[in-house]
Amino acid sequence: ELKVEQNPLFLSMQEGKNYTIYCNYSTTSDRLYWYRQDPGKSLESLFVLLSNGAVKQEGRLMASLDTKARLSTLHITAAVHDLSATYFCAVDSLLSSGSARQLTFGSGTQLTVLP
Amino acid sequence: GAGVSQSPSNKVTEKGKDVELRCDPISGHTALYWYRQRLGQGLEFLIYFQGNSAPDKSGLPSDRFSAERTGESVSTLTIQRTQQEDSAVYLCASRERLAWGKTTDTQYFGPGTRLTVL
Question: Cα torsion at B14, B15, B17, B21 (round to 10°)?
Fold first, then answer.
């Protein structure tokens, strides 16, 4: 059974600081996703990482994937208050029927950026 | 509409009652997923539909849960004889399937239905 672990689960940081969220997963996969969720809202896709060594950046967020280590990171540079949200990583895996893929989610990292 | 829509947005019900949740996927998206998100947790996969193929029900937690989808349109998730542990946000997501049989890599999520079982 695929397990996806994120840490930290809660992160409080000051504006302007840098920090990294980690996502470890237990079985081989070459697709990993990062989503953002604001309170009471649905999930917004941030990044799709499709291969070992993939790195993607959007604004103050940068995501990377190391499939050999089964690790993805989401790095936050010079945080601003607008980045406060819950961030989920999700790993792509085959459904038991083999018919398609599903996402297995981590528990999420609740990020609070303090002014 | 431009995105995945779900209704109702909130549902409060009494233990033992049946509830039906609705999902309208993005037009043209043939793949549809239902997930459950308990408070403070990640998403749990429930069921997957792809076109007219038999759904993958491997994530359904019990036989009280069922879902239907007609073709590539609306889907309904039904929970019978609701229990308090069914309280959660139920999220629907759709994904495009390209003509040559490959899916794109992003699932687009609806706003969810928050179910509270008293």
Answer: 80
Domains of chain A: 4-114 (2.60.40.10)
Domain ranges of chain B: 5-110
Check pLDDT > 80 for residue A96: no
Residues of B in contact with A92 (CB under 8 A): 105
Per-residue pLDDT at B7: 96
Q: For residues A90, B56, A29 and A87, what is the CA-based torsion angle, rounded to 10 degrees? A: 0
Tens digit of each residue's pLDDT (9 = 90 or more) over B35-62:
999 987 888 999 999 887 888 888 999 9
Collapsed DSSP state (helix, strand, coil) of residue A54: coil
| Chains A, B: CB pairs < 8 Å | 66
Q: Does A107 touch chain B (CB under 8 A)?
A: yes
If pLDDT is split at 50, 70 and 90, which confidence band does A46 have? very high
For residue B40 the two structure tokens come to: 């403070």
Cα(A29)–Cα(A2) distance, rounded to whole angstroms? Answer: 10
Q: Looking at this protein, which amino acid is placed at residue A105?
A: F
